[in-house]
Amino acid sequence: MPIKTKLEFFLPDLSSEMEVDFADVGISAGFPSPALDFMKTRIDINKLLNLNPLTTFFAKASGDSMIGAGILDNAFLVIDRSLPPQDKKIAICFIDGEFTVKRLKVDKKGISLLAENDKYKPIAVTEDNHFVVWGIVTHVINAL
User: Which of 88, 89, 102, 108 is catalytic?
Assistant: First the structure.
């Protein structure tokens, strides 16, 4: 059964700060705010995302199985391998020789991997599968 998700993995470069301007006032969806002309606050993206250099990885996802969770085709995923797998978390899973990103469903029946797109059926994990939760997705970066 094809999984319909491809992942390309990257290590983060945390050797330098990634500071960007930050508007610490709410961005209005109505009229523009003149306060934006006076932005002086800067934030470090690495610190904002709480990246642990020993356990953080990035992956580029391809496919449409997780669009309901906001993971679009070509999204970059921030993955933390130190976080424990839990019910309802979005995880990078290795099942039967393939990586996939799915929502975990953990209950007394066992583990299922749920897509966030009605085109795809849940994947029931059985003892016949070679299965590992590789990491937990903590952030998603999509292009607009």
Answer: 102
The winner for highest mean pLDDT among 43-47, 54-58, 107-111 is: 107-111
Q: Compare 125 and 55 and report the one with higher pLDDT.
A: 125
6-13+52-141: CATH homologous superfamily? Answer: Umud Fragment, subunit A (2.10.109.10)
Catalytic residue among 4, 28, 60, 65: 65
For residue 90, count other CB atoms closer than 10 A to its CB.
Answer: 21
Active-site residue flag, 65 = yes
The pTM of the full predicted model, rounded to 2 decimals, is 0.75
Tell me if residue 102 is catalytic: yes
Task: Count Cβ atoms below 10 Å from residue 121 Cβ, excluding itself.
Answer: 10
Provide the residue ranges of all domains of the chain, joining segments of one domain with +: 6-13+52-141
Distance (Å, whole) CA 20 – CA 42: 5
53 Cα distance to chain centroid: 16
Angle in degrees, CA 136, 140, 141, rounded to 5: 150
